[in-house]
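Protocol step 4 of 5: obtain the predicted structure for the target chain.
Materials: sequence only (see below). No template structures provided, no constraints applied. The aim of this step is simply to have a reference model before the mutagenesis design in step 5. Sequence pasted as it appears in the construct record:
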Amino acid sequence: EQKNVKPKRTQLGPRVTLDDERCILCSRCIRFTKEVAKDDVLGFVDRGSFSTLTCYPGKLLENNYSLNTVDICPVGALTSTDFRFKMRVWFLKQTNSIDTESSVGANTVVWSREGVIYRLTPRRNDEVNDTWMTDSGRLLYKQVTAPTRLTTVKVNGADSALAFAASAAVELFKAGSVAVVGSGRSTVEEQFLTKKLAAALKAPVSLVSRVGQGDKILLSADRNPNVRGALVTGLVDALPSTQLTDLAAAIDAGRVKTVVSVGEDLTAAGLTAAQLAKVSIVYLGTHANATSEAAKVVIPTLTVFEKAGTYVNQQFRIQKFARAVPGPVGAVDDCAALAALATAAGGGEISAELGALWTQLAAEVPALGTMSYRNIPDTGLLLDSTPWAALPFVEGETLHYKPAAAAAPAVATA
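Step 4 output (structure tokens):
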């Protein structure tokens, strides 16, 4: 005799598990996959008390937005395979953050306890990401404990401290012919300090472009979260290229003797091991790579989850995020490292404290003249993008961004 019992647990996809005895057949997940994710993969089968949620034959719930169905499930029938049963949510601290995987800048919440991050979820911002985010963005917290994480300041391969590293870097700078490679993944504050360092060294600045396939929802083609921040702060005045061809030519010609890399693996940007061997490298970054291995000075820095700051997204919307967890022992705050290098290079005393730094930012960066970190609302503020309207940004249309409409956005001040 057939019993009137639903199957209890089903793996709908690699990231989503269904506990069917909880499902109330509300169809929210079905509507989301069809209307928002544009992947019509879910449906109900059977009738009456036998009705159950399942995937269409030959399909799985494996699009890059599948975990949003977990967020909108009203009864917890859908759960994240990554987070399932790992921690009670009421034990977790919530911290506002930003998805740094592309220039969309989706608003997120970091869920942590006692310095450990357990999950990332979307935070509502109807002007940027509604209440959604990508699955790939939810996994970024795993970089915090990656085995390649840098945690020790090193000078010529030996363990050291920030003050000694700054002194060692200055000795390398004295050779002259310094080039700075900034980052579109740095915060506005870090880019401002990178500009200060470059000015003190009278060094040219390059930025590395990262371009991927956009999905027209919340993953843009520009995989740097803050290229527009580099434009606003004046770190660069043109869009970055994917290959550092000019820097490579300058190294080969002997015109560059020292390179300061802020979180960029120079080999990924086109430089060869032979070219790295021709220069002295000062590397600031979170994870080991070919550039950190070749560097004479290595300063380990913090991930986005371990610091506070701001990014400017594809809309020219400046958005702030807060520190969720402390950094590992031995890692140095990026602003502190850059300020120490700039001061040691002759740039004068520069504060790395966020409030004081924003006072200087507001005084020197016209687009930020009416702001402070504190008075930026949680939903961000639109900046005037007119000075950069003619630049050929790589992004196509996303959920709340249309390139043609980006030339003349509304302007808001705090």
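Step 4 remarks: The first strand starts at residue 9 and ends at 11. Residues 319 and 380 are 4 Å apart (CA to CA).
Proceed to step 5.
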